[in-house]
Amino acid sequence: MNGRLGGIARHEKSRGAIETLDHVSVTCERGVEGNGRGRIAPGKSGRRQISLIEAESWAAALAELSPASDHDLPWHVRRANLLVQGVRLPREPGKVIAIGKSLRIEVTCECDPCFRMDEIQPGLKSALLPDWRGGVLGRVLTDGDIAVGDEVRIEE
CA 107 to CA 50: how far, in whole Å? Predict the structure, then answer.
């Protein structure tokens, strides 16, 4: 089953402003162009080079928040780089996500939600904990130029 790329976001530094984009270059060397976490430091594995979240998981997490909560929070407040729609991201390291014509991302681990999620919305961290709702982290395997609407595939 294939899905679509629903959104692209980046932030230059930790706690920095989030910028949403229609298209971007993603490379093995820099990750999402202009994103602070993309460059792999010497001696590091790059396992947190890029982050992805499912639109469906984001919606499920928001639905669990209390009735007084803001259920219309935009996905990018999660600080993920890519939002995918209509496809379930792999829940195990080593699987490969393909986006557009050439981008390939290896899943390295779950993107565990941190305390910052509760700064955004009380209860959001807990709502993102089950079933990898917080998304996945990965390492870029092959470069690619991507755009919102591109096809997303899971390769075996």
Answer: 9
Between the alpha carbon of residue 154 and those of residues 116, 131, 136, 149, the distances in Å are: 29, 18, 13, 16
pTM comes to 0.91
CATH number for position 106? 2.40.33.20
Give yes or no for a contact between 50 and 146, defined as CB atoms under 8 angstroms apart. Answer: no
Q: Which of 55, 19, 46 is closest to 137 using CA atoms? A: 46
How many structural domains does the chain have? Answer: 1
> Where in the sequence is the domain holding 105, given as residue range(s)?
3-155
For residue 65, count other CB atoms closer than 10 A to its CB: 17
**1-5, 10-14, 48-52: range with lowest mean pLDDT:** 10-14
